[in-house]
Each structure stands twice: as C-alpha cells, then as structure tokens.
C-alpha cells in the first residue's frame, strides 16, 4: 500500500522550534512528529510513503534515510515548486500513489496526531465499497473548524460546512484519508483544496464515507495544542503500552523518559512530561506538563511547568519556567530567572526575568 | 634595507599598507535578527552596497595598499560570491580568513600574523565591518606615520550619553597622544570615543603576544574560585589566553606610554548593531554619495521616471513606475518592482520585492521577495534605537491589500491579512 503525508510549508506557528528544523522533524513524545505517522503506516502494511514538501527537502531526506533502513519502508519526497494546496500534491505524486493495482492509498496531514486506527479504516473502507473514506473526530467547539455532516447510520457524507454559525453537527475532518486511485482523476495539477473542491464532488455522488476516529486527536501545529496533544498521547499510552511510561516515586501521572536521560535525586516529575535523549535533570527539579527536548540540562532546584524546552537548552538553578514558555534551540537561562510565557529564539541567553509573555529575538 | 619604526619615513614608495576588516561571525549576530536569518550581517546592503563594501571602497583609496584581508568566523561560502565579484573590481587581492573560533578583536589579528605580514607591510589598517563612517584612511595613515607610535585610533567627540556606550578616551590636545582609555565606563570619563578604526605598525603583534602570554601565566598559576567563575561567567571566554580584545587588553594598558595616538574626525560615525541602525546608516551613506559619487543617486520628476526627493538609490535592474514618489533616504535593490502611485520614505527595499499600486512604505526594511498589496501601508515610528522602532519584514512576507503594519517585526514566510501594530510576528 502507498501513502502520502502532506508536510507543506514553513511551520511558522511552531516557531521558534521550526527555526531549527522543519516542522515534521520537531520531536513529539521523544520522536520526530512524522515518525509517529510513518510507523503507523508501516504497521498497517504501507511499503512506500511519499512526503509532499515545499521547504527544505534536503534536511528531511537526510534525516529520513536513516529511518528508511531501520523501519524497512521506502520514503520519497515530492517537492512542490509552488504551494499546491491540500489536493495538488496528490496529482504531483500520482505515479507513486497509483501503482496500477487499484489499491487505495492513505493521505495524512503531518500536523495531526492520533491513535491511527488505520487497520479499522481499511476494513471500513472495504465494507462500504465507496470511493473515499475520511476520518472525522468529535470536538466540543465545531464552529472553529470545518464540520462534516453525515448519515449517522452508515457514515455517508452529505456535506461540508466551514465554521458553521449554527449547530449542524460535532464531527470535524480529522485530516486522515483513504482514497481509491480513481480520486486522482478528479485532481488537476494546480493549487487545489481537497476539502473545498474534491470531497464535496465525491460526497455529491454519495461516494464519500466518514469513520469516527476512536481515541484522541490533536492538531499539534502550535505550542498550546502541542502540550495538550502530549497529555492525550500519554493517556493513550497508559492504556495501550504502559511499560513505556516511567514508574517510581519520582514520577506523577503519565511521564515518558528516554532511557539515556539522567534524573537526579529528590525530583518530582509529572504529570504529562516527556524527557528526551541525553537530557540531564539535576537534583530537586520539579517538572509538570512540559516537553524537554533532546540534550537539555535542567540544573538543580529548577521548576518548569506548561512549557516547551527546545533542544540543547540549559536551565539555570532555581529557575522558574511556566505559562507556555517556548525556548528555541540552545537557549541558556541563567540561574534564578523567572520566565512567564517567554518565547525565545535560538541561541539566546536569558539573563533577566521575563515577567509577562513576550517574544525574545 | 630596513626601516625601523622609530624613524618616520617620508619616502612613500617604501611604505606598504595592508588593510584588515574584522567581520565577526554568526553567533554574535542575534541583534541583527530577523535579517541575519538570511544573510551574514556584513553583506546586508546599505545605500545599495553590502555593509562591508563601504570600508573596502575606503581602503581602495590608500595609495600603497598591497592587500585587503577580511577576518571573521562565518563560513567561507557566505562570502565567496561577493569576494569573487570584488576581485574583478578592486586592483588588489582580497582574502577572507576564517577563524576557527572567536579570538577577540586583537586575537584575530594575532592568529593570522604570518599571513598579514606576508607582503612585509609597514602599516596595518584595522577596521570594524559594522562601523559606518567616512573612513579618512589616507589622512589617518599620514598622521600615524608622523607620530611614529605603534598605533593611531580614529576618535570623535560625541554627546555624554552616547559616549558611555563606547570606549571613552582622553588624548593630549597638543601631541594627539592617547593618554587614557576606558571601555564602556559606568561614570563619565570623556566625550571622545574610539571609532573602531585603527592604523598599527607591525609592533602591535608583539603587544598582543605579551598580553596573550601573561594571560597564559595567570590561568596556569591559579584556579579560579567558583565565586570568580560566577562573576566572569559572561566573560569566561575573555579568561582564555587566546581571546584578546583590542580595547580592554591592548589599548587600556598601552595608553599614556607614548605608543598610541589619536586622529580626530568630525564626520558622521555610527555603529551598525541593529536593523534600525542599518536604516539610519544607509541614509548616511546615501548622503555621502551626494558629495562623492552623485552619479549613483537617482533623479526624476515624475515624467518619464519617478519623482525623487532627496537621496535615493535605485538599482539599475529595479522597475519603478513614473507615478511613484521616492525619498528622502530610500534604497531600492535589484529586481524590485514599485507600482503606480506608491510612496516610499526612509526605507530599504531588498531584492525581488513587489510593491503594488498606491502602497506606502515609511521607515521600514522590506525583506527579499516580499510583496505589498494595493494600498498596503508598512510603517515604522522612525526611532532607530527602539526595539520596535522601525518595521522589518523578513524574507517572503506578504502584506495583503489595504493592510496596515506599524512598528512590527515579521519573520520570514508570513502572510499578513489583518492590520497589526507593535508586535513581533513569528
């Protein structure tokens, strides 16, 4: 089976993290975002993944070469010379996606994380025999998104409503699709939107079916949602594979720690924390609801909550970091500094406290 | 045949000068963000020419110039295109010498002593790339040779407030000798500042060597206590033996010993540390062109070419509609397109920018490949020193029709479809 992951562009909402690496390579729960998706695709039998990219393909390819070998899956890039929207990239990559076997192919959105119940999706797709299947997810505030209105009995999609003013339904497009190669015939090689142009046509022919996504779903394209996503992911891990979570008196709730990380005495870590490869957490540190990326050193007695600490940062002794602080790569926070929502670009030294949310360039 | 340094020579054919421009490197550049994301600071254009080009043009005027060296810790490939274009233009060789790590302003010189002395120069001109001034090098060289000391500093009288941000010095009013030097003093020392332009004789290498070896001795003789380590944390590099700073380590101890002299300038002088200052310095160089190379500036009256007010530079490949009005203090780079009825004041428009009809740009820098829609307005307050004093659009920023952007810094690849004020947009 084949798959296409829409990687797209510059990832500006995840700056300053995306100033150091392209967005799909930003780590999430100690693994590059895109690896979560590639592993899920491999598990359901996909043998080739095409990444639709329009920014820094060399960086992506260098990284992915290592994973091609270890995962045993073929990874190629389809480079857009101009932004092609959400459907154009499929036309661009059609030779790779349609191998003549008539088998359906997956399309995933790189910003999304979920449990990826792809095997169930394949079964659902075969059962209804229609042209295309999309995953939908239930949300509390549907009017922020594009709502999918469907026949609840069989999942047949009736229509899409962008940001509805009145309640029409509470299921939104989750950005995970399984399409039959016929769909490629509907897509011209120009910037097009799959949601606005392609799907409505298929739905009109009663050939588009929606499956409600079991489990969690999050668009982690911006820091606030990234942290919520981590909580949901770890919650799901607690149910499915609790061995991977840390255990012991040091830990509270769901915490994932890379095996190479060192944690000192007297720390209290959790809930909802990820600690990456090669990190050093010194004695007496409190971490809660935060992401600590690879190579970070958190010095003694520091306290970090609700924040994202980028690769190779150093957090000084007794520092207090909270309220959606995002530190880019290689930021050095001096001892005793307080950051209340600072957003700090790479390679900066923070020597004075940031008392209210601000961007430090 | 040897000329010793204490015998001032008036036979200029025996003199040879080498020029060194200190460029710095990427880790020091966070103050020049977001422009430094795309380009090494020395290559940022001021008045249509890369920053480093202005001191290089000044060096070109030195009659006995043998070679120009650029010393920095940027990667070579950043400058290779610029230097090969330069070699066709200048009549002397230009070389970029890459430091493997920062050695400080004097340490960098010392690190490359053998190369710098290759041509056996009698004098070494040292300039900082981020200084904007008239570089009166020929006059400075003459004065230096008359004084017969190890070095001559370019100095300027400024206001007390400005002086405290730089190196303050005291000079003998009769002889011009440097009597006292203090780098960024907390209390008032003097309103004369060090401009970062120097002429040295090869003796300077001995002076640097002495400082370097005494640092070696100090560091091997004692272990720093943890208290000291804490307080020199930010200067921990300065404790290393091969990191030698010109100001604190060389000028301060040598002052008052009849070795260093001063040369005063009354012309413009600024240091280009931030994008705001680069806008100011671009205007200063445009004003200088008016005097030295007026043919470089644009002119027009709205008939076949746009209306031009004051000093304006337009690259020959840029297209500006005749109904647009530009100036004062505007610089338009290669392949930019300025549409009908646009108004540009006090701004730098970088390569490949498109400005559509009736748009207005004031006190801003518009980054490479950006587009401004119809009736868009991009403006800054004009305070070059304030954090959000001018508006800076990074590479490939799109400002949609009728959108107003005031006092913002916008990082590359963003699209602005609603008006914004006083914000940094990541």
Automatic annotation (TrEMBL), chain A:
GO CC terms, sorted: cytoplasm
Top-level division of the source organism's lineage: Eukaryota
InterPro entries found in the cross-reference section: GMPPB_C, GMPPB_N, Mannose-1P_guanyltransferase, NTP_transferase_dom, Nucleotide-diphossugar_trans
Keywords noted in UniProt: GTP-binding, Nucleotide-binding, Nucleotidyltransferase, Transferase
Molecular functions per Gene Ontology: GTP binding; mannose-1-phosphate guanylyltransferase (GTP) activity
CDD domains per UniProt: M1P_guanylylT_B_like_N
Domain Nucleotidyl transferase: 2-231
Pfam families: GMPPB_C (PF25087), NTP_transferase (PF00483)
Any single GO BP term: GDP-mannose biosynthetic process
Pathway(s) of this molecule: Nucleotide-sugar biosynthesis; GDP-alpha-D-mannose biosynthesis; GDP-alpha-D-mannose from alpha-D-mannose 1-phosphate (GTP route): step 1/1
Domain Mannose-1-phosphate guanyltransferase C-terminal, first and last residues per copy: 252-360
EC numbers on record: 2.7.7.13
Family: Belongs to the transferase hexapeptide repeat family.
Protein name (database record): mannose-1-phosphate guanylyltransferase
Organism: Physcomitrium patens (Spreading-leaved earth moss)
UniProtKB/TrEMBL annotation, chain B:
Signal peptide as annotated in the record: none
Alphabetical list of InterPro entries matching this protein: GMPPB_C, Mannose-1P_guanyltransferase, NTP_transferase_dom, Nucleotide-diphossugar_trans
GO cellular component: cytoplasm
Domain Mannose-1-phosphate guanyltransferase C-terminal residue range list: 308-425
MF GO annotations: nucleotidyltransferase activity
Sequence similarity: Belongs to the transferase hexapeptide repeat family.
Name the record gives this protein: Nucleotidyl transferase domain-containing protein
Origin species: Physcomitrium patens (Spreading-leaved earth moss)
